[in-house]
Amino acid sequence: MADFQPLMSHPHPYPHDLTIPQFLLDSPSHPLRPTRLAGSRWLVDDDTSRAYGLEEIRERVERVARGIRAQFGVGEGDVVCLFSQNHIDYPIVIWALHRLGAVVSCANPSYTAGELTYQLRETSSKLLFTSPSALPTALAATAEAGLFSQERVVVFGPPPPEPQLDGQGCFFSSQPEPTWDTKDGQFLTVQQISLLGWHSPPNYVEPRGPMVGDSVAFLSFSSGTTGLPKSIAIAHRNLIANVIQVVAHNRTNEEGLSREDRFAMPGEVALGVLPMYHIYGLVVNLHVVLFSGLALVVVPRFVFKNILESIVRHRVSHLYIVPPMVVMMLNNPLTKSYDLSHLRFAMVGAAPLSREVTERFKKQFPRVRMGQGYGMTETCTVVCQFEFQKESVNGSAGKLIPHTQARIILPSGRPAGPGEPGELWVKGPQTALYYPNNKAATEETFLPDGWVRTGDEALITKEGDVYVLDRLKEFLKVNGFQVAPAELEGHLVVHPYVSDAGVVGIPDDMRGEVPIAFVVLSPEGKAAASGAGAAGEGNASEEIKKWVRDQKVRYKWLEGGVVFVDAIPKNTSGKILRRLLRDQAKEIVQARKKGMVVLAKL
């Protein structure tokens, strides 16, 4: 069976002779790049509305690069860790480090000290940028890792003041912010590094050459939903290629499209709430957005009410979101209190979204062109995405983007045909390089002929629609049948009693294993469950199990039961941390064996 091919392509090459900032900041005339309005905003701070345009970004990147070089001696090949929530200077620091030839490793700001220590050691980082809220953890991890002194910790402070122009027409924020004081000492801020760079003469040579794009730009980490995160080496050319592929797929700069069919119009705005440390936020929500001519509102953290207010205040038109955000927009009554009529695009990624939830979203927001995309850190994000100019297929992750091939491999090793589920393999210019320090995992995932094994179960229809079913290792085997937890979760969250849900398996002597559902009740569900004490909880549980029985085949029924919990454990990209649910499930099984009652936590 032939490989699956994208339905569209483009003639433009993927450059190997550019780094990411050279491509994004220094090459404004790419044929796929829309022309921006003069003086348009690029980055906007959500709280203060302080904005950077292109010229100020380029100037600030240069000054920060000089400051880092002068203060810390960072140079080509050095690894620097960013351990921070989103900040308007977060991409500035990334691009400054890339100007120096350094490698960036972005860390989840909700990590514990032990988790951050692991990443620092895995990457041999030599410098750390962090946010004020994460500073105590950063200091503890720095001490534990023992790689560098705490004088090499830099803090993202408030957005800098509005700039002035000096005699050479350069942007210059002359007001220094105070050194960041803590009980443990004093720490330089990004603004102070910028001011140091202002007073420093040119002190580095930016890497250039015909193959500079082959050098490593990021050491990103897998989500670690089933084990320890793995470091993934991503080259400059990988990210650049994925930006070009997505922009071509969106037909962003194509002539002759109507206003409604044009992906991005001058002056439109995207919400930057996805964490920039995550590959989806880093590549798509940051670099694709800016290359497409949109302004990006940088949001430090997700608070639902604040997000709604930001969408209205900044007249956001484009949303890049994850399934939990979709469920909140549908189930939280606050949504109806805000005028969101200026939204016209929403892409959902990082985890599968069920057909049922997709249908509900489209009904509630009929003006928004909404669909899914799919990718992973090992593919430097996007493999497939819905087509903006067409109605997306509910439940599908869209179609392959240009110059991306796919295979579906059956357990027998035979390539599958249309409609047959199996493991998804992909190949394209966006795929990452390898897992550093992990030869065995590299050989298992990154195959010699350029294919990447995703570890995801998927099928591709004859029309080219990709359906990602679940992680292969997360499938349940019930009476020999495969059950995808994501399918049951997508079905559960459309029940009025359910706000969120997570499904794993528990052992069963007769059937191998059976599904158990962890459920966060909605206000309506809580009212039903609390109406008659334990009997009320039982009635709510039975109602939820009946919801599955009525619409799913028998082996998918929730024979393991329903357990009410306060929250479903997830990482910040929205992926369920199933290993934590499995740990809870083991405790429940042990309690049941001892005849103990498992109480709901409302």
Number of strands: 28
Task: Write down the CATH topology of the domain at 475-593.
Answer: GMP Synthetase, Chain A, domain 3
Radius of gyration: 24 Å
Q: How much beta, percentage-wise?
A: 15-25%
Structural class assignment: alpha/beta
Q: Main sheet? A: 9 strands, mixed
What coarse outline follows from CA principal-axis ratios? globular
CATH superfamily of the domain at 475-593: ANL, C-terminal domain
Just name the CATH architecture of the domain at 475-593: 2-Layer Sandwich
The low-confidence parts are none
Q: What order do the strands of the largest sheet run in, or round the barrel if closed?
A: 2-1-14-13-15-16-17-18-19
- Look at the structure and give the CATH class of the domain at 475-593: Alpha Beta
Percent helix, as a range, is: 25-40%
Oligomer: single chain
| Tally of individual helices | 16
| Average pLDDT | 89
End-to-end Cα distance: 52 Å
Protein described:
The protein is globular. Helix 8 (279-291) links the parallel strand 13 and strand 14. It has a nine-stranded mixed beta sheet with strand order 2-1-14-13-15-16-17-18-19, with helices on both faces. Helix 4 packs across helix 5 (135-145) and helix 7 (236-249) packs across helix 8. With 602 residues, it is of the alpha/beta class. 30% of the residues lie in helices and 22% in strands. The chain contains 16 helices and 28 strands. The model has no long low-confidence stretch (mean pLDDT 89). The chain has a domain at 475-593: ANL, C-terminal domain (GMP Synthetase, Chain A, domain 3).
